[in-house]
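--- STAGE predict ---
source: upstream dedup step, 1 unique chain passed
mode: sequence only
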Amino acid sequence: MTASINDVARAAGVSASTVSRALRGRPGVSDEVRDQINAVAAQLGYTASRSASSLASGRTYTIGVLVPYVGRWFFGTVLDAAEKVFSAAGYDVLLYNLGSPETRKRFFTKLPVRKRVDAVLSLIIPEEGEAAALRSLGVPLATTVGGTRPGFTVVGIDDRAGTESAVRHLVNLGHRRIGMISGASGPLHWTTPIERRNAYLDVLSDAGITHDPALEADGDYTVEGGERAMTELLAASRPPTAVFAQSDEMAMGALRALRRHRLKVPDDVSVVGFDDHELSDVVGLTTVAQPVAEQGAEAARLLLHQLDEPAAEPAGHVQMPIRLVLRETTAPPRPRGPQ
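--- STAGE serialize ---
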């Protein structure tokens, strides 16, 4: 006969509910007891039934995840880290790629996640109607993008502070012609490009530097876009001596463009990125480091905590640390006459 959860409980000397928590990775079970239960379950050949657990708890053991782009590094890194936390706790992920306006509209019209998920991790910034639709699901909600939002646990960073540290670094080195590669054509309703641009403009103003619109270009948050944007900035009548790119991928594209134009970094042009991409250290990129994977993992942990402790107050807004990492792509401008 196939062993049951009660057989495991009797053999381990614990309750069936303790066996259930231990095998699903839930809190409230010591490591020693968990190891003992896992050993007994393996010895008896017991495997927890997902359908039985769902019937008993009313849960689907599935988390819905909404993303604007699956293939982009930031979103992929957040998703991968979150999925690992969900998987370790016995949950599956139901992924919705909402990259096009049509797909997004259809999703929020039909809400296919209703009664199919226990919680939602949204990597898109919903407009008010979309946020209301998600709140109507009556499940825990979390995100890693955007600011504080009613009904959501938000895990993120201070985009303004990060940008200010990057641009001030260039100002303090003596640069006056500071360009910016932005992501104006980023995901729908994404506030990050706006926050970072405003911080860039504020630092220039504080330093007494007149803003030149010719020193801004859209890089679409991709390597190819960054290369295209850097080429555009170099074509300006007075090109920049330094560039802040709103993402490391765009910064890497900028480095490629500069290399193709036979310009040296940082001798001819300094470059600063944002993210601390896994390849940033390889190319020696000065950047603002943010804990991308940790944001995804923390958002997942907070969602699971809300599921385990539904009466507990949601975390609200959790701000993760950022720091400026100095590498080889920034230096004072070379004397070349008026800048």
